[in-house]
Amino acid sequence: MLVNTTIVVVDIEKFSRRDTSCQLRILDAFNVSMKQLVDILADKKISIEKKIATGDGLAIIVHLGPFFIFDLVEVIHHFIHDLKSHHEHIVCPLFDHKGWCNCKGHAYYNIRIGIQDGPVVAFTDINEEKNYAGTPVNLAFRIVDGARRNRVVVSQKIYTDITGFDASLAEKFVA
């Protein structure tokens, strides 16, 4: 079945460079943060269809009308700002310099977020669970690969949809 969705991909930056014990600490902290994000989205009446763990992040599938896409982007932008504020007190020089470390005393991490929308195929996967496939899913993962640390990157389509709805919103985006 073809459905129109918005895909939000959250990637933990440089996750695979961490040792296993550090990865586990980071995943615990990341999961707490993602639950907070999900709660914030729910408070904003943004309905989440599916959360898919990716190993080093999360894909969130939401069904939005064009009028809610800016709300989604705005919520995620504020969430990243809050996460960055939390990291401002970091006292690990290695993490501060490289953006990652294997230190035992903390679970600091940076994230990158990519957002794309469009029609995807909803299907039942090997685990007998609803899943999604298609170009928007692939593009969301490619977009996040090009994102810088602690940034939200939206596709050109989403940017066009948002600024087509309200041209004054263009000033909120950085090229």
Helix content: 40-55%
Percent range for β-strand residues: 25-35%
Helix/strand/pairing class, anyone? alpha+beta
Shape: globular
**Total beta strand runs:** 6
Average predicted local confidence, pLDDT? 87
**Distinct helical segment count:** 5
N- to C-terminal distance: 35 Å
* Low-pLDDT runs: none
Order of helix and strand elements from N to C terminus: EHEEHHEEHEH
Describe the largest sheet.
Answer: 6 strands, mixed
What would you report as the Rg, rounded to the nearest angstrom?
A: 17 Å
Present the secondary structure layout.
Blueprint: E1 2-12, H1 20-43, E2 48-53, E3 57-62, H2 69-87, H3 93-98, E4 111-124, E5 130-133, H4 135-145, E6 152-154, H5 156-165
Helix pairs in contact: 1-2
Structural features, described:
It is a single chain. The chain is 40% helix and 25% strand. Helix 1 crosses helix 2 (69-87). The longest helix is centred in the first third of the chain and has 24 residues, at 20-43. It is built from five helices and six strands, in the order E-H-E-E-H-H-E-E-H-E-H. The model has no long low-confidence stretch (mean pLDDT 87). By secondary structure, it is an alpha+beta fold. Strands 1, 2, 3, 4, 5 and 6 form a six-stranded mixed beta sheet that branches. Strand 4 and strand 5 (130-133) form a beta hairpin. It has helices at 20-43, 69-87, 93-98, 135-145, 156-165; strands at 2-12, 48-53, 57-62, 111-124, 130-133, 152-154. The chain is globular. It starts with a strand and ends in a 10-residue tail after the last helix.
